[in-house]
């Protein structure tokens, strides 16, 4: 399996990707991949630094004849989003990613692939290891924890880097060159509640929402995809309104930056409403599946009898939660007035957990406009504070303001057009790239982002195009040869 990947062209890139994907690298548990990267740099004989937060910097001198070019920073993040299908048995903490080739695509078996941002990391590794690729002096920056807080980029101090140009390799369409991105902030609502004894003559049901596409909560937020937490709440609200449904547990979603694909709830109904409840739910399920038939053709909603829980949520808190979740905005909030087709502000209701007298709702709000980001965050905060939640607004990181007069942008657009016979799409994206954060401590650095085509990032459908990787590799090599002189 690994050999199948290693035989792909360009071999230098895919071999390093296979090496990297053999190392478990969950966000906030990057100890093994940090050690792996430090060992890689030291074996090459290059200056290798681990900073105080865990970022790794490897410095490689310019090749002969390129000493007069500007020093560049090549940057990607080491961590990856961990998502798997519910029927996939896999331990991200101990196992390497199991990859295979499917036509033009490299995929993983039932899990995320880690091409985001593993292909960027592998690119830099291949350049560092090369002996025949011309390039200027390189400072390779491998950041940690991009996917769950960007704490690596936030913790990188000024003075560690001297490069004048930053090449961020974290864009996912090979015809795009990114010059700006959204910032983000976490909105987390929590409260305790009293559990009540399950009334007599109750029947237990398990409601399961699954089969959704999921995806990146920035890049895919405009696609009209289903959010498992919003769909589940619709069912719970309907069941409570019509049949007095009571909630025992909810487990919906996982990662803040992934559109939730699955949710499971354990509920009770009075046995006198048993058949009517199931009949009504089937009608509602049919309506929802019809609404999502284009974007979510594999959506499944299953209602099945199960063990009757002994405890349920206090009815007053339950009513408040279901109403707050209905009111809380999910999806696109505002489109940019300045850049065509760019989502300006959005929210992802990423996680809903109800269990053992505690409720937790986690959201990731994104925007390329700081004031709009906090406007939506405060709207969410208000909805949940009205039901007695403590709401924390944390982990704010800035967006990256586009610079259409960037000198490195001119270099990349000229090379792209020469190689492909068409112009690249120069865009700003709704994802959270690290450029804006890195720019706070390195304000004079000229920054650009690009990468190979990756589809379905942050979901088990993640896949990387083999043909695109070849196009991208050729692009990278010519960029390195054309870095401006100092």
From TrEMBL:
Keywords: Hydrolase
Domain Peptidase M20 dimerisation, chain residue ranges per copy: 208-270
InterPro entries: Peptidase_M20, Peptidase_M20_dimer, Peptidase_M20C
Keyword Hydrolase listed: yes
Pfam families: M20_dimer, Peptidase_M20
Protein name: Aminoacyl-histidine dipeptidase
PANTHER family: CYTOSOL NON-SPECIFIC DIPEPTIDASE
Key word Hydrolase present: yes
Organism field: Flavobacterium arundinis
